[in-house]
Amino acid sequence: MSFINSKIKIYTFAILSSGIFLASAQTKMTAPSTETSKSGKILPTNLKWSERMLLSEMNRFPESWMLDFSKSPKWTYPAAIVLDAAEQVYAKTGKKEYYNYISSFGEKLVKEDGTIVSYELEKYNIDLLNSGNVLLYLYEKEKKEKYLKALQTLRLQIDGQPRTNEGSFWHKKIYPNQVWLDGLYMGMPFYTHFTKDFTKGTDATKAYDDIVMQFDSVQKNLLDKKTGLLYHAWDESKEQAWADKQTGLSPNFWGRAMGWYGMAMVDVLDYLPKDHPGRARIISYIKSFSDAVIKYQDKKSGLWYQVLDKPLANGNYEEATASAMFVYTIIKSVNKGYLPKSYKAAAKKGYDGIIKDLITVDENGVVNLNKCCAVAGLGGKPYRDGSYEYYVNEKIRSNDAKGTGPFILASLEFEK
C-alpha cells in the first residue's frame, strides 16, 4: 500500500511539475502584454503603433522635458515633435495622461513671469522656435498668461532673426549668411500658426507672404535640378569651408535635412489660408520633393539612407529619422489631397519597412526605434565639413525624438 501511495505521490508531483512548466512557458510567451516595466506601467501590445510608441516614450522619459535625453530641463526642439504627435493621440483617444504629459512641458519650461528656461533670444537660433508649437497648443487649451508672454517673446525672435539679402532666415546668429533646410521646419510652422492665432489684417498678409517666400527662396537656392533633391545648406557668402566656392552649397544630400523640409511644408499648410496664392506653389514643391524622394527609396526595404544618393557607399545605412519623416510627409500629403492617392504605395512601403527592420519590441511591450542619427550639422567646433564621411560617422542611437515623433505622426496618418 505504501508502495502504491508513493507511486501516486510521484505521479501527482510529475503532473504538478509539468503544470508549473506549462504555466511558466505561457507566461514567457505572453510577457509582452502582461509584464510591467520598471516604472510599474504595463505597456499593452494590442494598441495601434501611434499609442504604443507614445507610451514607450513616456516610459523612457517620464518627464516630457527629458525627451531629448536631457538631464535637466532646457528649451530644446526635439521634445516638441513628440508632443505635437501626443496632441493628436490625445485628441484621438481622450486619455488624460497624454494631455498631462504635454502640459507638464509648459509647466516646467515656462516660469510664471513668462520667461523660458535656458532660452536666450539674442542668440537668434531658429531651432528654438519649434517648441513654441507646444505653447500655442497649451495657450489655446489653458489660456495661461505666462504662455502668451512666452509666445510673444518667441515671436520677437522672428522680427530680429538675421536674414540673407533675399530675406531667408539665417539658421543661427553664429552661422552668418547660412540657410539650412532644418530651419524651415524649426521656424515656419510656428510662424504660420502664431500668425493664424494672433495676427490680423495687413500684418497677417505680410507674415504669410514672408513664410511662403522662405520656401520659394530655398527652392531657388538649394535645389539640385538633376536629382530633384535639396542640399543640406547654402552659404550666401560662400566663405564656409563646407561651401562650394561657385554655388555656396554644402556637398551632400543628408536624409534628415530633406525630412525636415518635407515636414515643414505639410505642417505649414495646416495654418496657411486656403486662398493664399503661395499655397499652390508649396503644394507643387511637395510634389517635386516626393518624386525625388521616392526615386531614392530602397526598392527592397522601402527605407532611405543617411546620405540619400549614395546607398552603396561604404558606411552608409538605412536611417530611421529620415525614413519616418518621408513617410509622414507623403502619407499626410495624400490624406490632405496634396498628392494623388497613387503615392500612398511608396509611403506604405516605407512605413512597413520601418516596422520590419527598424522597430524592436522589448519583453515588457516597450517599443524601440533603432538606427537614428543622433545629430548632424555644419561648421561649429569641432568643425563639421559636410563630407560623406562626416555624415555616416555621426553617432547612431535608438529612440531619438527626431525619429519617434515622426513615426507617431506617420502612424496616426495611416490609422485614419
From TrEMBL:
It comes from Epilithonimonas ginsengisoli. Residues 1-25 form the signal peptide. GO terms for molecular function: hydrolase activity. SUPFAM superfamilies: Six-hairpin glycosidases. Keywords: Hydrolase, Signal. Pfam families: Glyco_hydro_88. Transmembrane segments: none annotated. The keyword Hydrolase applies. PANTHER family: UNSATURATED RHAMNOGALACTURONAN HYDROLASE (EUROFUNG) (PTHR33886). InterPro entries: 6-hairpin_glycosidase_sf (IPR008928), 6hp_glycosidase-like_sf (IPR012341), Glyco_hydro_88 (IPR010905), PolySaccharide_Degr_Enz (IPR052043). It comes from the Bacteria. This is Glycoside hydrolase family 88 protein.
